[in-house]
């Protein structure tokens, strides 16, 4: 995947694209892959980097959602469990089976959650990942030796999927290209164009060189997540906002706080939220919160009380109480919830997706979850193809292997997340053994991964490499700042850029990374 090549393709084509997708998060990438794989001429434009928005800030679960089961939203759980199974088959290099334990501290916890999780197993059907069962206190502590043992009665174990969200986004962008579509980052939609009253294209601004252009399409899909209303207002300045934003924060801690490979799931904290502590890339991810916010932002900031909330509740379930000093990184994401929940707590607004068509023919898809991105895309492209009058073509993504597809990767292999591309990264190291050097003692990444990200994953900035191609920023914000200079140096050589570019990148990245340190927050 190469940005110059995408620009050349865009510039050299002055006809109509069949489908143009705005937004390079889970939803937009899914739509573009669905469209391209049906044979439609497809362009996807993302204003920043792929998954810069909500799609790199999730809990990293491919799940039916035990919480939605509690809320009685059976159809959402059924759909998500089905999609979980498909994604495990289509991206086995990125999605793993993850065991969770619901710890029981009250006598009724065991029967209550035991029965609920049996229903969860049943709904998953043949795509189930393993049967849930009740565990004694000794069995529970054997699996999670660092779980708070005081008053513990046992636990209920169940299984869900876990993945790397930003890596999946990059692989989806590559898959779009593999299927004949064109994905491009740092290309912002600044306006819509019309033929009569119907939308027939978009105005684009290249945020790297400032260049502006117009492209035309038979149908435009608005998949801009928390920015959905901005595009709707470009089309109809008086449009009523449909999105509510709910912020979720995660803390990243050292693995010693959750030994073993089993995650903790607390279905209900004292204010009714779900709390997860999940092993991820040899760290522990703890979260999340559900705080209504009134503004969309690509870099939302965690609130002091959200950090305090997570630390307090994590301490109830961990033998060693984590403190602020133990936080390696803290990150926030905004959920794009379809806001029929005026006056409702955001935790109770539906996570179902919302598909709508404006009078101008603009197709808007929003809400949903990472887990259900493929189904959302299928529904959206079915609708978009009808509106555009495209020749009928069936959805092909149910069994489409996502770029990097490789089964039975060794989870201990540090290049595991690259799947079938790992072999090419090894070749870079073979031709220059210095490329095999680790960037930092506290991070799993080697120099060759920076080079690979620039050459084949459309990484253009230091942030792209350290936040999303590698996950350095969220695994250890301070370590990611330490490697900024060396990584910028490697990138500059690849991109043919000078020391001024390097200095600017390092300074911008350090400023950004400061916001992921625990003492950042407002
Ligand atoms: C805290 C948290 C935890 C979550 N955990 C999970 C989980 O564990 N599992 C799960 O399944 N789901 C989870 N979700 C939900 C999931 O992350 C989201 O549903 C999903 O990422 C939304 O993707 P999206 O593409 O709609 O939005 P985004 O990822 O925000 O993508 C929209 C994109 O549109 C781009 N854009 C906006 N305006 C323009 C423009 N004018 N021109 C070009 N591009 C534009 C933005 O830059 C952005 O990249 C979680 C969400 C949150 C907040």
List descriptors.
522 residues, binds flavin-adenine dinucleotide, 18 strands, 10-stranded mixed sheet, 17 helices, 8-stranded mixed sheet
Question: Layout of SSEs?
Answer:
Elements (H helix, E strand, L loop, with lengths): L2 H10 L3 E7 L3 H12 L4 E4 L15 E2 L3 H5 L3 H17 L5 E9 L4 H16 L8 E4 H7 L10 E9 L2 H14 L3 E3 L2 E9 L2 E9 L5 E11 L5 H8 L7 E12 L8 E4 L8 E6 L2 E5 L3 E3 L10 H14 L11 E10 L14 E5 L5 E5 L5 H16 L33 H10 L15 H10 L5 H8 L2 H4 L1 H6 L1 H12 L3 H16 L8
Parallel strand pairs: 1-2, 1-10, 2-7, 4-12, 10-18
Antiparallel strand pairs: 3-6, 4-6, 5-6, 8-9, 9-10, 11-14, 11-15, 11-16, 12-13, 13-14, 17-18
The protein binds flavin-adenine dinucleotide (FAD).
Flavin-adenine dinucleotide (FAD) binds next to helix 2, strand 8 and strand 16.
How would you describe what is shown here?
By secondary structure, this protein is α+β, with helices and mostly antiparallel strands. It has helices at 3-12, 26-37, 66-70, 74-90, 109-124, 137-143, 165-178, 228-235, 304-317, 373-388, 422-431, 447-456, 462-469, 472-475, 477-482, 484-495, 499-514, and strands at 16-22, 42-45, 61-62, 96-104, 133-136, 154-162, 182-184, 187-195, 198-206, 212-222, 243-254, 263-266, 275-280, 283-287, 291-293, 329-338, 353-357, 363-367. Strands 3, 4, 5, 6, 11, 12, 13, 14, 15 and 16 form a ten-stranded mixed β-sheet that branches. Strands 1, 2, 7, 8, 9, 10, 17 and 18 form an eight-stranded mixed β-sheet that branches. It starts with a helix and ends in an 8-residue tail after the last helix. The structure holds flavin-adenine dinucleotide. Flavin-adenine dinucleotide binds at residues 22-28, 45-48, 52-55, 57-61, 188-189, 223-227, 248, 288, 333-336, 366, 368-371. Flavin-adenine dinucleotide binds next to helix 2, strand 8 and strand 16.
């Amino acid at each position: 995947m190469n940005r110059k090549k995408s620009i050349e393709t865009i510039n050299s084509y002055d006809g109509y694209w069949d489908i143009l997708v705005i937004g390079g998060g889970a939803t937009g990438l899914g739509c573009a892959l669905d469209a391209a794989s049906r044979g439609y001429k497809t362009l996807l434009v993302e204003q920043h980097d792929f998954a810069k928005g909500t799609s790199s800030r999730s809990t990293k679960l491919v799940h039916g959602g035990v919480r939605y089961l509690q809320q009685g939203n059976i159809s959402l759980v059924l759909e998500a469990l089905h999609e979980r199974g498909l994604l495990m088959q289509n991206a086995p290099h990125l999605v793993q089976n993850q065991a969770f334990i619901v710890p029981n501290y009250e006598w009724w916890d065991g029967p209550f959650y035991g029965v609920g999780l049996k229903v969860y197993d049943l709904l998953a059907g043949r795509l189930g990942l393993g049967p849930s069962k009740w565990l004694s206190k000794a069995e529970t502590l054997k699996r999670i030796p660092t779980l708070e043992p005081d008053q513990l009665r046992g636990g209920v174990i169940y299984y869900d999927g876990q993945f790397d969200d930003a890596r999946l986004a990059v692989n989806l962008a590559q898959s779009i290209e593999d299927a004949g579509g064109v994905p491009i980052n740092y290309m912002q939609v600044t306006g819509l164009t019309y033929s009569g009253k119907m939308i027939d294209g978009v105005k684009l601004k290249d945020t790297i060189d400032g260049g502006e252009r117009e492209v035309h399409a038979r149908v435009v899909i608005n998949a801009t997540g928390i920015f959905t209303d901005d595009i709707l207002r470009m089309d109809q300045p008086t449009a009523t906002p449909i999105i509510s934003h709910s912020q979720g924060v995660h803390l990243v801690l050292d693995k010693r706080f959750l030994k073993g490979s089993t995650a903790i799931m607390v279905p209900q904290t004292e204010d009714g939220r779900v709390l997860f502590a999940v092993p991820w890339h040899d760290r522990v991810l703890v979260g999340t919160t559900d705080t209504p916010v009134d503004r969309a932002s690509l870099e939302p900031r965690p609130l002091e009380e959200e950090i305090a909330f997570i630390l307090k509740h994590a301490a109830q379930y961990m033998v060693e109480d984590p403190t602020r000093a133990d936080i390696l990184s803290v990150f926030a994401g905004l959920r794009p919830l379809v806001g029929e929940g005026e006056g409702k707590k955001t935790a109770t607004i539906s996570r179902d997706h919302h598909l709508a068509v404006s009078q101008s023919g603009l197709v808007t898809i929003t809400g949903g979850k990472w887990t259900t991105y493929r189904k959302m895309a299928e529904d959206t492209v079915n609708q978009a193809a009808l509106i555009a009058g495209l020749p009928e073509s069936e959805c092909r993504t149910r069994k489409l292997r996502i770029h990097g597809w490789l089964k039975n990767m060794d989870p201990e292999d540090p290049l595991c997340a690259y799947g079938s591309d790992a072999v090419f990264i090894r070749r870079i190291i073979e031709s220059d053994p210095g490329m095999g050097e680790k960037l930092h003692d506290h991070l799993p990444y080697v120099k060759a991964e920076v080079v690979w990200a620039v050459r084949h994953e459309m990484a253009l900035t230091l942030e792209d490499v350290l936040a999303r191609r590698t996950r350095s920023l969220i695994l250890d914000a301070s370590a990611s700042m330490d490697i900024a200079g060396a990584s910028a140096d490697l990138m500059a050589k690849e991109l043919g850029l000078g020391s001024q570019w390097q200095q600017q990148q390092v300074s911008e990245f350090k400023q950004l990374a400061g916001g992921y340190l625990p003492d950042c927050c407002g």
